Amino acid sequence: MEMDLKQAQVLILLVLASMLAVGMANKNIASTQRWNHGFNHTDWFAKHQNGTGGPKRIVVGGSENWHFGFNYTDWALKNGPFYLNDTLVFKYDPPVDNSSHPHSVYLLPNFWSYLNCDLTRAKRLADVTQGGGEGFEFRLKRWQPHYFACGESNGFHCDKGLMKFFVMPLFRRWHG
Ligand SMILES: *[C@@H]1O[C@H](CO)[C@@H](O)[C@H](O)[C@H]1NC(C)=O
Ligand SMILES: *[C@@H]1O[C@H](CO)[C@@H](O)[C@H](O)[C@H]1NC(C)=O
Ligand SMILES: *[C@@H]1O[C@H](CO)[C@@H](O)[C@H](O)[C@H]1NC(C)=O
Ligand SMILES: *[C@@H]1O[C@H](CO)[C@@H](O)[C@H](O)[C@H]1NC(C)=O
Ligand SMILES: *[C@@H]1O[C@H](CO)[C@@H](O)[C@H](O)[C@H]1NC(C)=O
Ligand SMILES: [Cu+2]
Question: Which atom of ligand 2 is nearest to the CA of 43?
Answer without folding.
Answer: 13
